Model the fold of this input.
Amino acid sequence: MTVQKPLHALPFKGDPIVKQGETIYEIITKEDGFGFGLALARIVQTEPHYHTLTQELYVVVSGMLDLEIGRFRHSQPELHYKLGTGRAHSIPIRRVHQASAYDCKAAWVYVFTFPSFDPADYHVLRRC
Done:
């Protein structure tokens, strides 16, 4: 019999990062020296944003996620993906992206970052 550890029992670092529509629990950070980062994110709806240095890989752990990816600094999405549990998708640098959960039921997503995530590289797309 396999016993699955609950998501909230993983070894998170520090306090969660709480943003409008998402909560991020860091697991591997820059300080660990691996050259990549890993976090577990609880996503209902993220802001449209982009990164100039960081590539991301989203892996859905549970729930359903709607991922939209657009051009650099443009609000109109070019690509639209529906990701269920066990599905993954990479997000290149300089691409505006946002994610939302189906039916407002939070999706849990592993977010791998290459290189390690730096909060200064989180750029919200301003519509005005």
